[in-house]
Amino acid sequence: MSAEATSRPFVVSDRNLALELVRVTEAAALASSHWTGRGQKNDADGAAVEAMRVAFDTVAIDGTVVIGEGEMDEAPMLYIGEKVGAGGPPMDIAVDPLEGTNLCAKDMPNAITVVALAEHGNFLHAPDVYMDKIIVGAGLPDDLIDLDAPVGENLRNLAKARGKDVGEIVLCALDRERHAELIAKTREAGARVRLISDGDVAAGIAACLETATVDIYAGSGGAPEGVLAAAAVRCMHGQMQARLLFEDKAQRARAIKMNPGKEPDRKLGLHDLAAGDVLFSATGVTTGFLLQGIKRRTHHAITHSLVMRSKSGTLRFVEGHHNFNTKTWSAR
């Protein structure tokens, strides 16, 4: 192998690395699925975290968690700054071991496990605050959407670009009181609204899928989830804009500390959130508009996952068949 080839660590191993990430999200999904419908969201999340952390020990990276379960003193595992992996190229990791803990606890749609990977410095270091977001899919004119434009204008531009009537456009948002005006203005423009209780990473991805019944995702949700959604949108060549939202001066100061030299209130483009070559994997825990949930039987289970890479734009839907006789940790 030439010296030039060995100097590009992320190019040599990234194809295998993408498939290794699937094993990480599968492990978390299998572990959390034991708690589906049991009403114990913390137990479900804890099982996902533990399984994901163990699975990372087999991945050939020198990984640092930059989007995780919180600070070291708040989260015992997968905290921001934690080192994971079996050794290899340095990578930044964004994780949500169980996105939609309430969804899993109540056996509602769209609970997923999520991991994204990028070279060091390519993910926004997002504090645990709200983030305003707008997302559409691929194949559209550049800069079609604008976070600061009225929602009706964005909907009309999207409908025109898609060759649809505005009445055929479906906007997805979290069902929250803070979105009352967004919902009213969307309906006033003639578009439809699909409300979800949780799980805005899955919803943001769905807005980029041609097979989904969602055309645009908008509204505010968690900033860490926004970075994860951006990683997926990068892989799907969609469009996204965002802005951090602060409830007090302490939150704003935290954002400045995490991203020195950057204006915390600036409008963020897709590459501000997730740059470079990005890998993304998600596994369904409960069936939703993105993935099938886990089908558990006494001695085996079937998982459905989505794995993507921004460089190639390839999306792979992976069906895994797991034998609990050999994966004893997932059969608790």
Summarize the structure.
Belongs to the FBPase class 2 family. This protein has 332 residues and is of the alpha+beta class.
Order of helices and strands: HHHEEEHEEHEHEHEHEHEHEEEE
Briefly note the CATH topology name of the largest domain: Fructose-1,6-Bisphosphatase, Chain A, domain 1
Our Rg estimate from Cα atoms comes to 19 Å
Query: Which percent range fits the helix content?
Result: 25-40%
Low-confidence stretches: 1-12
Mean pLDDT: 91
- Class derived from helix and strand content: alpha+beta
Organism: Acetobacter musti
Family: Belongs to the FBPase class 2 family.
Keywords: Carbohydrate metabolism, Hydrolase, Manganese, Metal-binding
Pfam family, one: FBPase_glpX
Structure description:
This protein is of the alpha+beta class. Residues 1-12 have low confidence and may be disordered. The protein has helices at 3-6, 9-33, 41-56, 101-105, 151-162, 180-188, 200-206, 223-235, 249-258, 270-273, and strands at 62-67, 83-84, 90-99, 112-119, 130-136, 170-174, 192-196, 216-222, 239-245, 268-269, 278-284, 295-296, 300-309, 315-323. Helices cover 32% and strands 26% of the residues. It folds into 2 domains: 3-123 and 278-331, Fructose-1,6-Bisphosphatase, Chain A, domain 1 (2-Layer Sandwich); 130-273, D-Maltodextrin-Binding Protein, domain 2 (3-Layer(aba) Sandwich). Strands 1, 2, 3, 4, 11, 12, 13 and 14 form an 8-stranded mixed sheet that branches. It has a 6-stranded mixed sheet with strand order 7-6-8-5-9-10, sandwiched between helices. α2 packs antiparallel against α3 (41-56) and α7 (200-206) runs parallel beside α8 (223-235). The termini are far apart.
